[in-house]
Amino acid sequence: MSNTKEVCDSLISKGVESFKKRDYIHSLEFFTEARSIANKYKWDRQLYDATFHIGNTYYEMFDYGEALNYFLESYTIALSKLDAKDEIASLNNIANLYTKEKIYDKALEYYTKAYQLAKEKNIDARKGLPVMNIGYIYNKLEKPEKARYYLKESLKYLEEEYLLSAKILLIENDLLLGNSHIARKEAFELLNNPDYSNALNVDVFLWSLISKSYLSENNYEMASEFALKVLDKKPVIDIKKDTYQLLSDIFKKSGNLEKALSYKDSIIDIEKKLNDIKNGRLFENNRVKFEIQNYKEQLIEKEDKIVHERWILYCIITIILVMVLFIIIVLRQKNIVAKRNQENSELNLLREKNNSLILEQKVLNSTKEQERLKNEIDTRNRKLSAKALHLSGRNELIEEILNYLSKRPKYSKDSTLASYVESLKHHIKTDNDWDDFISHFQEVNSGFLTRLKAAHPTLNISEIRFIAYMYMNLSYKEIAHLLNITSDACKKRKERLVSKMELPKDLDLYEYIANL
């Protein structure tokens, strides 16, 4: 298949060479064959290139309808199969067609699409041409203010070969803005720039702009002098027609109606020649299409021949298959034995599968039991938390009463009241409550304290108590009440514990003990 792809690329290269020589018949033949091969094997790159070049060929043959069809097809291929660079190239060519036909609104639409896509994909190398062409269209629509923004923008991205075009369009833009003196000065600077001395038709374009600048200043002698310079260069027929129109305008404005009418007649002759060329091109295009159609029919005949040869091949394969079938029948007995062995294997596999299902059920039951036990532990822990919080509230209330009494000395002389105070102080002692709490905690969270002491044997009773409260997910405030300390002291105790237990600083203490 790689050889066939190389052949396809070779056909496209031959087509390009013929195109450069203006041998459009052979170029279309090469491109058409390459397109047929690429379409058959679904080679998107080759299919796009061949289709794109066919569109270019029809464009050069003035068959803009056919060119548009192929450019649209190449755009569709690029859109679905290739990258944004190919999309932009197709959009530019479609816009060029509309520009050639002077359908400027459609041209502007496709140039803008190409520019927006280049911006979206951040492809600087593809931004220059479409944005310059947008400026060119706005010049044509006589909207020089809009045109100038896009032409200035294009200078950032254009390569050297297109930079001159943008500069010429900016000179034309100055002319449209009424800055004829500036436009003429810039035109002369480009004419005298040695970097552009070999550029194709640069003098023709600049002389034409210089002529228009003089015309806008009513300097008819200089305007006609530079317009005639353009004609002396024997430009292509389109430029010649525009120059005749310019000379007609010059002489009409200067009052020389005879010469103005003479150049109008020249325009009519040019248009007749253009029509003759287009008619000749149309005949040539139809002839080329006829030959291409014949070529396609030859390709179809070739395909039919391949199909016939394939049919013969299938017959041979069928004979071979019959022979193979005969061998299969001979070996049938062996296959039966193999099938029985397979059935036995499947039966064993089924038994193993059933055993696996039983094991899975046991695991599921075990998981459910663990879940039940976990829920039960959570319930008991909630009860323990409630009890601990109750004790905390009781101690807090007793402390408030003791503080109140301690601030009033007259009560200390009352012996009965003093005995009650001692009784209250006895109640806020937490050792007996803690022993009772630990007993319940061990019952609910079996083994936790044992694992904690084994992992961290240096912890004392006070620290173990603090960790137990944290394990029950009590807040700092709640723990502080239970331990008769402030919230800040509670936080500092946690930090000291993390350090003492040699845990990483970024590890959450609650997360650590919950997984212990």
Describe what you observe in this structure.
By secondary structure, this protein is an all-alpha fold. The chain folds into two domains: 2-214 and 270-298, Alpha Horseshoe (Serine Threonine Protein Phosphatase 5, Tetratricopeptide repeat); 373-514, no CATH class. Helix content is 83%, strand content 0%. It has 22 helices and no strands. The protein has helices at residues 2-20, 24-41, 44-60, 64-81, 84-100, 104-120, 128-140, 144-154, 160-176, 180-191, 202-216, 220-232, 237-254, 257-330, 332-406, 415-427, 431-444, 448-455, 461-471, 476-483, 487-500, 509-514.
At a glance:
This protein is mainly α.
Q: What proportion of the residues is helical, as a percent range?
A: over 70%
Q: What is the number of strand segments?
A: 0
Q: Estimate the global geometry from the Cα principal axes.
A: flat
The CATH topology of the largest domain turns out to be Serine Threonine Protein Phosphatase 5, Tetratricopeptide repeat
Q: Please identify the top-level CATH class of the largest domain.
A: Mainly Alpha
Give the tally of structural domains: 2
State Rg. Answer: 47 Å
Category by helix and strand content: mainly alpha
CATH level-4 homologous superfamily of the largest domain: Tetratricopeptide repeat domain
- Going by CATH, the architecture of the largest domain would be Alpha Horseshoe
Mean pLDDT across the residues is 83
Note poorly predicted spans.
none
Write the layout of secondary structure elements.
Elements: H1 2-20, H2 24-41, H3 44-60, H4 64-81, H5 84-100, H6 104-120, H7 128-140, H8 144-154, H9 160-176, H10 180-191, H11 202-216, H12 220-232, H13 237-254, H14 257-330, H15 332-406, H16 415-427, H17 431-444, H18 448-455, H19 461-471, H20 476-483, H21 487-500, H22 509-514
Helix pairs in contact: 1-2, 1-3, 2-3, 2-14, 3-4, 4-5, 5-6, 6-7, 7-8, 7-9, 8-9, 9-10, 9-11, 10-11, 11-12, 12-13, 13-14, 15-16, 15-17, 15-20, 20-21
